[in-house]
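Q: Predict the assembly, please.
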Amino acid sequence: MLNSFIPILAFLFQEVVGNDRLAQMKHAATHPDLSKFLVIGALLFIIGVAGVLTRRNIIVIFMSIELILNAANLNFVAFSRYLQETGSVNALAGQIFTVFVIVVAAAEAAIGLGIVIALYRNKETIWVDEIDLLKW
Amino acid sequence: MYKYIWLVPLLPLLGAAINGLLGRKLRFSETVIGGIAVGSVALAFLISVVAVYSYGFGSHAQWPNPYLTSQDGFSFNWIPGGAVSINQGLHERSAVEAQKQAAERFAAMTPEERAQYQGVFVAGNTSPRYALLNIEWSYQLDPLSSIFMLVVTGVGLCIFIFATGYMHGETGFYRFFAYMGLFMFAMLVLVMGSNFLMMFVGWEGVGLCSYLLIGYYFDRQEAANASRKAFITNRVGDFGFALAIFGIIAVFGSAQYTEVFDQARAFPREPLGQWGVLSWIALGLFIGACGKSAQLPLHVWLPDAMAGPTPVSALIHAATMVTAGLYMVTRTNVIFQHSQTMLLVVALVGAATAIFAATIGITQNDIKKVLAYSTVSQLGFMFMACGVGAFVIAIFHVMTHAFFKALMFLGAGSVIHGMHHEQDMRRMGGLKKYMPYTYWTFFAGWLAICGIIPFSGFWSKDEILWNAASTTQIPLGWLIWLVGTIAAICTAFYMTRLMAMTFWGRERFLEAHAGGEADEAHASAYDKGLAPHDAVHPAAGDRPRHQPGEHVGPVHEDVAHHVTTHGHADEDHGHHHGAHIPHESPPSMWVPLVVLAILATIGGFVGVGPAFNFITGAEHPGGRLNIVNWLNPIIWDPATGDFKHAEGGHGEAAESHESAPVAASEHGSAPISHGFNLAHAVDNVVHSHLLTEWIFIIISLIAAGIGILLGFLFYVWRPALPNIWAQRLRPLYHASYNKYWVDEFYGWAITRRTMDAARAVFTFDFKIVDGIVNGLATVSRGFSRVVGGVDKYFVDGLVNTIGAFIVRLMSPLLRAAQTGLTQNYALVMVLGLMIAVAAFFARDIATALRNMFAAIM
Amino acid sequence: MILSGYEALFFWIFALAAIFAALLTVMARNAVHSALFLISSLVSVAALFVLAGAEFIAGVQILVYVGGVMVLFLFVIMLVNVGAEEHGREEIFNNRRQVTASLIFCFLLVAGVLYAVNEGYRGLQKSRPIPENALGAGTRPTETGPPGATGTSMITKDTEAVGNSLYRYASLPFEIASVLLLVAIIGSVMLARTLKQEASADDVDPELLQEEIARDSELAKLEPQSE
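A: Predicted assembly structure:
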């Protein structure tokens, strides 16, 4: 199915990029490798960071942190797969780390949301720009 | 059947656990405790016998291939170490590879090319290697461990039965058998483990049990001190052993025997004076063996260990634990034989220990001390055998020694028991009449240790001396033979002395006591001027219910009378120990003696040597039943670079073997004759190999005869002679009597110096460090006054002026930064992250910027 | 690791889905929508895990994250129900300065990280090249399980290998993680208690309790209970 699109794309963009370059791009697109996983991970990470920095709702900030952790997991898993294929001795370490990251994320969510509830009960707000206890 | 060998260590542990954990709480009677302990060991012995039989002779006999319990699923990954890098021994290994490649190339050459072969070696690969270290808990049954299993459980069983009689009436009865069971477990793990770490666990375990059992009478100062001494001295050895294990893992990437020896087999041999990686490993192992087997620099603990109960001395300090060093050296004979230097060191240390301890044994008066030094001396003989390359003979001597020395220790225990806790031989004599069973069994042991044909000691000791004289593995074989022969004379002498003073002659126990070094607790009490029975102060909980000298065991009519009179005598003039009529021990004590006596008599026939082949018709008669044939498959043969063949093949006396040129080049040097070789010299004179061997056998028999005759002369025929000669050789006598002042020397050189160092460190701490600190405090206090003045009038003024200025200027800025909002702070974190990423690619970014500007300009 | 054929197609689908869902998570006005978008992002990432050959991790991701953590999130959103945001009465983003600075930093960071990935991957290919025969998923060292009904099976023995690895090399961290979870449970229970609950468990500073009673007389009823 993907292959049927490629001639059309090639026809459309042949003028813009050379034939060689197009073939390279086609190969890169139809054979995603480790670097693509890393790029996706990086983008998820940045989106998470942006969420943490810009949102006011503390719960959404927590969700953004989960996104950041997931980006890290994606990197771990991708490298684990890569090492399995290059024949490293303990290639599954990446997956094991992912398990621990998920454990830590679960613990963090439980504690964090507990804090959110305690905060809401005392301050009656979930807007972080209204919480400036650090100033004192 | 040998699938079930994992039960062998487990059963004594189970017995120990039941006795130790429940014995006191449930108030088990002595019968129950003894039954559990003896039963568990007996069952273990039974399983060992059946397992070894089916391993060696059954229809599915696996001999000589080692059988591991992991083959049948009984094992678990004890230490899953994961990936390790092998970073030691790469040079040696690469040399092996290079030689192998050269040999392959050599094999592929045409004869013409071979003639031109110059031995050009390709350089080996010395880059680090990786291995998966996975240490499993599994037991190994092979020729060596099967012998040790049988000896440990078999002799152990005899001693357990003996102990039920000997320890009768002790409050800590359950504790004693719990420790003994634990010891059996540790010892069996040591000899049955399939890797070095299990050996180490057993090694430390027996050390711990030895400590606990020596200190069994922990309310006696001597016992407590002796146990600590044993423990600390053993630590020195264990340190070396631990280092050697680290070295083995670093070189071979494994601790499993099968794997390590398979790799070590191919390493090049390290000739005399060369310290390669295997020599260092062997040195570490040998330091460990020295500590455990009481060899020369570290022998001091064993004689003191006699403060423990006598069955402990028999089991741990004669028959089993002290031979752990021999087990280890024989187990690692591949490594030891790769290092000629270490073989020589082992032989010399063994010979030195043999003569050293034998000369001390001549002058001791405590019956157990004599036996202790005899043990040290015999262990020296065994190491001597290892050093000259006759590992099988060393194990043979371990076995026969276990029989006759356990027998003699138990006999001594029986004597001590019969004499009501009297250990000084000067207060014995004439016991033959009162203790017939003990006497006749002891008699067999005496002949065995002196080396009288056909008792067991003869076969092994004679083989050791013959191998020493004929060795081609190390130089100085003649010296070692000479020292060994003199030590054998001494052995025969002091053993005859022991027999004479204990069983023959005047009945001195009827006379006034001689005083002195008898029972340790007594002696110390005597030194302190206390009444002897004050020696044992009541301690909490476990202490012997009976006092030294009090009667234990079945009461005979005459003895009962003595006991009652003893009570009165006690009030009158204090110490009246000697004046008991001794009695024979109960059957639970003399039956094991008889069993061991039979073994000590006939046990040597499993190792009849090649000198008797005109009678037996074979070099090592009996097929697999002969210990040499049985053990040969685990002994590495330096001549062929492989383990020896199963049935016979090469004799123990290593002739220089002709081997293929490729094989020789592959495995380094074949055994070379070093200098003067006594056996070869004699051989050249008489031109008959058999006659040469017989000459040496006759010499060793004559040596034993001389020792015995001297003993008779000094202690039976002319009892006045010992004192005369002690006067004449006063300095020598004193040196021997005081054990060459080794303890004093260690006390002076190590213990005192450690104390001095501690004191010096304390002084340094107190005077100098504290002084510096205090001085600094004084100085800084003075300084701070000055600074305070400056601060107050000058700086404060300045700060107030400038500060006010800055506060007005900067505070709005800083205040604005401190918003208290988490996200502002997070923003700064991201900024930092960004800088971190940028810093990684600073050079690339700079290049990019430069290009950009260049494009713009 | 090189995917090909339909794997490549699904990779792009789930990658784009994950990124869009993540963007919508950050930008959604309603917190519940945010959570739902996060769920779809997580599921997409789980699909990427499957493509990378980590079936077990994908399963854990869905069970723990989507099934556990996100439900917790939804509960908390319901508990602290704030209508103002979704009705447009409250600004969902921070003040303009913060947002501007954040976005600038994030853009620089994304540029830097992408550049780093590019450079790093190029270096990696040079130092540890993938063996020639490692194209496609079937060449991984782990053997595959029995074939499915269609005759081919992409399910490998990955889970078994992960389990082996986890208990062999990481058994101690595993135990520590269990302690961490226990601490998290206890901690969140302690955090989420109300003053009433605390007072009934006699877990409040007496002075503070007096102050609170002075403020709220209803609490005084609880006091005898605590003694």
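Residues 134-142 of chain C have pLDDT under 50 and may be disordered. Chain C touches chain A through 97 residues (CB under 8 Å).
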